[in-house]
Design goal:
Radius of gyration: 20 Å
Order of helices and strands: HEEEEEEHHHEEHHEEH
Largest sheet: 6 strands, antiparallel
Structural class: alpha+beta
Helix content: 25-40%
Shape: elongated
Number of helices: 7
Length: about 230
């Protein structure tokens, strides 16, 4: 059973779909709501994909663990965003990564059959949600392309500078301050380094008056210099 979702019309997946049609879609697709505690797995790599997931409360970390113990944080999923969509139309028999709750999380699980099978009434909401899903997939592809560009930086300082500038330009910052949605360890995994290395480089950049760091924020002091680093 799905509880009432606040501002559901603002969620990209439901764009241009009325509240009545959304409720009808939940019934038609047999969508269910699930809750997860901090650190628990929404799904694990190796499990069989069957659903599309939509975060309605909290955030989810998408990461890849290796046998060596190393973790690669691919991206974070926030409220109103979907995940698991890359397996929807791919010939994939198992999840390639983990989805881990960050804090208390609520998600909707929409079975894939809903996207594959159109009902006899050819519902308008069915057409619109498929269109929205294609738009979301395009945006996710762009996000992953940006991360590949980020990891192309040859030094850790270059990767930090590029990530900070991208956060500023993508609207994820308040004025000149980037608010971290990940802790230091997760950010280090995202940037392809270790937490001690990340902390040392951030300290050096602060000493050189390029940035100012706090527990959950990084303020850009000299953007012009940062842009010359990559």
């Amino acid at each position: 059973m799905v509880e009432n979702i606040k501002d559901c019309e603002r969620i990209h997946l439901f764009r241009d779909i009325s509240k009545e049609e959304i409720e009808k879609m939940f019934r038609c697709s047999k969508t269910v709501e699930r809750s997860f505690e901090d650190g628990s797995y929404v799904f694990r790599q190796g499990e069989t994909p069957r659903n599309l997931f939509l975060v309605i409360e909290g955030s989810v970390m998408i990461s890849k663990d290796f046998a060596s113990g190393k973790r690669d944080v691919l991206f974070m999923i926030g409220q109103g965003d979907v995940f698991g969509e890359m397996f929807l139309f791919a010939d994939a028999k198992a999840y390639w990564y983990d989805a881990i709750a960050q804090g208390k999380v609520k998600v909707l699980e929409i079975p894939w059959e809903f996207f594959y099978c159109f009902c006899s009434n050819a519902c308008e909401h069915h057409r619109m949600i498929t269109k929205n899903m294609l738009e979301i997939q395009s945006e996710k592809n762009f996000t992953m392309t940006r991360k590949l560009h980020l990891l192309s930086g040859t030094t850790l300082r270059e990767r930090i500078a590029l990530w900070l500038i991208e956060q500023m330009d993508s609207g994820c910052a308040d004025a000149d301050t980037v608010r971290l949605s990940m802790n230091r360890e997760e950010l280090a995994d995202y940037l392809g380094t270790t937490r001690p290395s990340l902390s040392r480089e951030l300290m050096k950049m602060q000493q050189e008056q390029l940035i100012e760091t706090d527990k959950n924020t990084i303020r850009i002091v000299n953007r012009d210099v940062l842009e010359t680093l990559y």
